[in-house]
Amino acid sequence: EAVTLDTQGGTKRLIETRLGRSIVYESLSGDSLTVGAASGGGSANPYALVQQGGTLDDTVTSAPGTDLVVGFQNTIGALSPDGEAWCGWALRLDATAATPRLTFTDPSAWLDEERAFWEAYHAPETPPEDLTDQELAVFRQSTAVLKMAQVTPLDACPSGRCAGQILASLPPGQWNIAWVRDQVYATLALLRTGHQEEARASLEFLTGAEVRKDGALPYYQHRFLESTDAAPGVWGLGIPMTADVRLSLARYYGSGLEESDANAAGPNIEFDNLGLFLWAFAEAVETLPDGAAFRYDHWEFATQGVADVLLELIEPATGLLYPDSSIWERHFCPHGACPEPETRKHHAYSTLQAAHGLGRMAALAADEGDAERAEAYAAAASALSAALTEKLVVTAPGALGPALAGNLEELPFDVYYFDVAVIDAVNLGIVPADSALASATTAALDTYLRMGPETPGYRRSDDPTWYDQQEWLFCDLRMASAFWRMGQAARARTLLDWATAIATANFGVLPELLDIDGAAQGAIPMVGFGAGVYLLALMDMLGG
Asked: Are 469 and 480 in contact (CB under 8 A)?
């Protein structure tokens, strides 16, 4: 990298360039300003100099180097006991020497402007009454995380479809990609906390994003599904499709182009995305002031591109959805190349989300006057719910009674079939909260997936990978919502208090994972699977 000092406009700016990209560092107050730039390992390192009481003298290393450090130093003079002085700096990515200098020179006004922005953003929120100070702080930080994770319009977006997407994690978390599933939980939280315009933008990104069909991408999703007797699908799903899939079955590139995520182990094909989208779409129609107009504008996408697709994904032999990667993204291998057992399975989570989403769409179709679709969606929702409780209920060793399993393929094994994701069957009313099945399912999850005495939380499944064996805050919070619906307020409160404490210890944000000692692991902060589900649990329990 290289650093240059730019003084042409009468104020000092440092321009740091690496691999064709630049950052301009610029002071908001030029009085008595000195700068420096040098190698981080050298004696002229501005950070080390100032830390040792030294003074910068505008020395800037001109030669390119590694780990160059830039610094600014302002002299503000003597202050009276009640006096104040301000200084500040702005960092602009991809700016250059030709970028106009900042004309806003009052740092306190910049801070006031930022505070005003957040006050305006939080204004429509209706947090539940009687929140503790910690809960209110995490509530506010969580809604702020949702805002920060949503892409706003960018002039540099080549496709024009970038705005509205919500990333799964913010830096330093590595999942700074828009997964449909995470985005849905974030969107639901936005709707329920009063942020209707952000929720609308999220759904309009999903309905306006681009699904590639021209074969330019090696893993584009239509090839995963389409199949004929003469030419099985590239990945061997063998699903004869006539409906046109309009939603990504994995995630999106930042440009708004669908990315059916794949690696050396094969692709992720996540049918749960379809039911999840319908859930958020239905809630938007019911929540937005112009819900009827919103439904009209996106009805073709929601029906032909999502709900009609789900009708074709119901497997005749089982009544469940065809096998997929589902919530935990189990990559599966190309046709004929998979070792046994294949990781693709009949997942309960995908089926329950489909049942719920189609049920919600049936009501909307009836309201729309589309009697044929209303009948088809309602029948499919009922059949999927019945298949779920018929095919995926099992009594495990030591369990209280029949419980909902995570998938069909692992039922022949002892207990490898449990998965906390099934708890959304209770949260969505597929399994009644007051039923014996709900009680037995939570008891089985307690027996097999509770982390241990040091935490009230849960791992996501009993598969023997490091990722599966960590505690998932997403699981803890969905369990909290379910316990509340089941009338077990104390257990729900324990999990909510635990998540609040974890967030409070981590600057108000929720990490992806916790290890056995309760230390934050994985991506931090998580958005839909962190801030989103925290807000949903809080609103479920305390929001009225």
From this structure: no
Q: Write down the pTM of the prediction.
A: 0.90
Q: What is the DSSP string of 92-157?
A: EET--TTSPPP----HHHHHHHHHHHHHHHHTT--PPTT--HHHHHHHHHHHHHHHHTBPPP-TT-
Instruction: Report in angstroms the alpha-carbon separations of 234 from 31, 142, 220.
Output: 65, 41, 11
Q: How many whole angstroms separate alpha carbon 239 and alpha carbon 255?
A: 29
Q: What is the dihedral of CA 444, 446, 450, 452, to 10 degrees?
A: -130
Tokens 């002892």 belong to residue = 414
User: What are the structure tokens assigned to 384, written together?
Assistant: 């999927």
Query: Does pLDDT of 144 surpass 80?
Result: yes
Q: Do 137 and 501 form a contact (C-beta atoms < 8 A)?
A: no
Lowest mean pLDDT among 130-139, 342-351, 470-479: 342-351
Q: Which residues contact 185 (CB under 8 A, 6 or more apart)?
A: 528, 529, 532, 533, 536
pLDDT of residue 30: 62
Nearest to 523 by CA among 169, 165, 147: 169
For residue 18, list its beta bridge partners.
21
Neighbouring residues of 17: CB distance < 8 A, sequence distance ≥ 6: 1, 2, 3, 4
| Closest CA relative to residue 417, chosen from 465, 463, 474, 355 | 463
Cα separation, 383 vs 343, whole angstroms: 25
Kindly report, residue by residue over 266-322, the tens digit of the pLDDT: 778 899 999 999 999 999 999 999 999 999 999 999 999 999 999 999 999 999 999
In 281-419, where do the E strands start and end? 393-394, 403-404
pLDDT tens-place string over residues 363-410: 999 999 999 999 999 999 999 999 999 999 998 877 778 999 999 998
- Does the structure show a pLDDT above 60 at 178? yes
Q: Is the peptide bond before 81 cis (omega within 30 degrees of 0)?
A: no
Going by C-alpha positions, the residue among 265, 271, 183 that lies closest to residue 221 is 271
